[in-house]
């Protein structure tokens, strides 16, 4: 087992790193079918995975503007609505990546650019990274490491060629703690409360706190808690008062336990890293399952060579969390390191099956409906249902039988708009 000091960034991040069950015709679709020139369009696919389960028969998904307005069985009378036949594909919701770092270039050095790059350079990178994610089928990203609220600015541009962006602003951390260089340092109780208030005033979608150090920040300790339970509870209560969810970065058991006891909504990583490899705290896993705290696996990466002993150990921990009933979300940590480019999310779906023991359908859920739920947007993202955003992905064959299909998306729609293949 690797020991503290010998754990490389690469190995740690390797893993650390039925609403339409009957496909009933909704009233709105009937209304639409008698209308022409209304902006309604249909997409025909051999199968539909609706974010929760597969419908194995050919179906027609109706869109109007940026919204799904109906799902019909093939052969339904659709009047003069233009229909695009997508062929032998499965139409599914676009992927939701609940953990990305749009400010980072995936080189492995997150500190120097964060301290030195101009806002213009950073903004260009954020837009480029967001577009790359969309090209791989990711139609929603949650950014959890902003600098100077730049990502919020890009979010609010609502550009048609980007995924929807959800933002945390700079993560809240201790002096010299994980990602201190992003500007979110808060030490005293007053500073913690002020930091949450500032993020709420800025309009963030989630509050991110660094509950332990991180492997990419020199001098921080990923094995130990950065805040006490009381401090984290203060933070969580304040965020919840603003109706904001909290997700906590945590590797070591003390930080995970503190975050869970404080009532966070999500834990990122949850690797149980320790100086001797991984040291699991079963009680905390049971507490996460009981409270249904989302765990962001941050496991997606482009595969390279044989997985290390530590990567496999962390994967085994995440698999045990999943088996214990913890809602396990497929996410990427894109931008954190070279094997995590912004196009790596589809590999994560495969890894949820191959390393965490999910069925193919469960792996698909973890990157769509469950991921959307974890980001607080499960009422409009991650499912194919009337009223939901028309963020769609067509993949060849049947990914519910073999998620390898995710690696070759053929068509991507963002808010009802076809994204040209790059
Ligand atoms: Zn991260």
Give a brief description.
Helix content is 31%, strand content 19%.
Please explain how this structure is put together.
Helices cover 31% and strands 19% of the residues. Helix 7 packs across helix 8 and helix 11 (345-354) crosses helix 12. It has helices at residues 9-15, 27-33, 111-116, 119-135, 150-157, 189-202, 229-241, 253-262, 282-291, 309-323, 345-354, 360-366, 369-374; strands at 40-45, 47-49, 54-55, 59-64, 67-73, 83-85, 89-93, 95-100, 138-143, 164-167, 207-210, 246-250, 266-269, 273-274, 277-278, 294-296, 328-329, 392-396, 411-414, 417-418. With 422 residues, it is of the alpha/beta class. It contains 13 helices and 20 strands. The protein has a six-stranded mixed sheet, with no helix packed on it. It has a five-stranded parallel sheet with strand order 11-12-13-16-17. Strands 5-4-1-6 form a four-stranded mixed sheet, covered by helices on one side. The chain folds into two domains: 9-17 and 95-374, Alpha-Beta Barrel (TIM Barrel); 27-93 and 383-418, Urease, subunit C, domain 1 (Roll), CATH 2.30.40. The longest helix has 17 residues, at 119-135. It binds zinc ion.
Break the fold down into its secondary structure elements and pairings:
Layout (H helix, E strand, L loop, with lengths): L8 H7 L11 H7 L6 E6 L1 E3 L4 E2 L3 E6 L2 E7 L9 E3 L3 E5 L1 E6 L10 H6 L2 H17 L2 E6 L6 H8 L6 E4 L21 H14 L4 E4 L18 H13 L4 E5 L2 H10 L3 E4 L3 E2 L2 E2 L3 H10 L2 E3 L12 H15 L4 E2 L15 H10 L5 H7 L2 H6 L17 E5 L14 E4 L2 E2 L4
Parallel strand pairs: 1-6, 2-7, 8-9, 9-10, 11-12, 12-13, 13-16, 16-17
Antiparallel strand pairs: 1-4, 2-3, 4-5, 7-18, 14-15, 18-19, 19-20
Bound molecules: zinc ion.
């Amino acid at each position: 087992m690797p020991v503290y000091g010998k754990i490389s960034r690469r190995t740690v991040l390797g893993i650390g790193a039925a609403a339409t069950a009957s496909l009933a015709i909704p009233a709105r679709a009937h209304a639409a079918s008698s209308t022409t020139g209304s902006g309604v369009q249909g997409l025909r696919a051999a199968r539909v995975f609706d974010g929760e389960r597969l419908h194995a028969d050919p179906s027609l998904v109706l869109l109007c503007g940026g919204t799904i307005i109906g799902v019909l069985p093939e052969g339904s009378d659709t009047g003069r609505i233009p229909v695009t036949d997508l062929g032998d594909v499965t139409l599914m919701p676009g992927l939701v990546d609940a953990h990305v770092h749009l400010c980072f270039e995936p080189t492995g050095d997150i500190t120097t650019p964060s301290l030195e790059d101009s806002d213009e350079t950073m903004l260009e990178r954020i837009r480029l990274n967001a577009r790359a994610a969309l090209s791989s089928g990711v139609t929603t990203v949650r950014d959890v490491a902003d600098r100077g609220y730049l990502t919020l600015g890009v979010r609010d541009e609502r550009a048609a060629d980007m995924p929807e962006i959800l933002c945390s602003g700079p993560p809240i951390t201790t002096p010299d703690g994980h990602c201190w260089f992003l500007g979110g340092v808060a030490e005293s109780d007053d500073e913690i409360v002020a930091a949450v208030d500032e993020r709420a005033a800025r309009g963030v979608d989630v509050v991110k706190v660094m509950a332990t150090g991180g492997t990419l920040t020199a001098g921080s300790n990923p094995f130990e808690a950065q805040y006490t339970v009381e401090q984290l509870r203060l933070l969580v209560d304040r965020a919840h008062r603003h109706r904001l969810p909290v997700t906590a970065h945590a590797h070591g058991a003390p930080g995970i336990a503190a975050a869970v006891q404080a009532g966070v909504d999500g834990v990122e990583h949850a690797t149980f890293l320790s100086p001797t490899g991984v040291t699991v705290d079963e009680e905390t896993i049971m507490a996460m399952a009981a409270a249904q705290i989302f765990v962001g696996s941050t496991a997606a990466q482009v595969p390279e060579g044989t997985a290390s002993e530590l990567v496999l150990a962390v994967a085994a921990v995440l698999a045990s969390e999943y088996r214990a009933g913890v809602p396990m979300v497929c996410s990427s940590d894109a931008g954190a390191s070279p094997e995590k480019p912004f196009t790596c999310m589809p590999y994560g779906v495969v890894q949820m099956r191959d390393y965490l023991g999910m069925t193919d359908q469960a792996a698909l859920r973890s990157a769509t409906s469950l991921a959307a739920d974890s980001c607080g947007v499960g009422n409009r993202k991650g499912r194919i249902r009337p009223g939901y955003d028309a963020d769609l992905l067509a993949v060849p064959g049947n990914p519910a039988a073999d998620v390898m299909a995710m690696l070759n998306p053929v068509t991507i729609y963002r808010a009802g708009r076809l994204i040209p293949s790059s």
